[in-house]
Design a protein that fits this description.
By secondary structure, the protein is mainly α. The protein has 6 helices and 2 strands, in the order H-E-H-H-H-H-E-H. 78% of the residues lie in helices and 5% in strands. It has a two-stranded antiparallel sheet.
């Protein structure tokens, strides 16, 4: 049940981010739900590998490179889900990754 709640909340966050940031398009709640599911799968499968591969760069930037990894995961999800699009990696995906990370932090603290 908690998984479904977090999935729906992430879909709502994705719709909010698409509304706030120009260059991100989500055609509807169903697409946002699928995109949230794909984001969750990519975060579980691809992100740890990317984090390990870029660990020296992440240490050098004091963890700020994590936002670039998050932006890449978001951009990859947009490439995989029809109806979800991000126009540019820099600055659109980076800004979206920062906003989503902050909102997900607040959601994690609340649940």
């Amino acid at each position: 049940m908690r998984f479904i709640l977090r999935l729906v909340l992430n879909a709502i966050v994705l719709l909010l981010v698409a509304h706030l940031i120009q260059g991100i398009r989500v055609t509807g709640f169903g697409v946002a739900l699928i995109a949230a599911l794909v984001l969750g799968l990519l975060n579980a499968l691809v992100k740890p590998l990317l984090f390990i591969l870029t660990l020296p760069l992440n240490v050098l930037t004091l963890g700020l490179f994590t936002f670039v990894i998050n932006a890449f995961i978001l951009w990859l999800a947009a490439a995989l889900v029809p109806g979800f699009a991000i126009d540019h990696f820099f600055p659109t995906a980076i800004l979206a990754a920062i906003v989503m990370a902050l909102v997900n932090l607040v959601i994690s603290l609340m649940t």
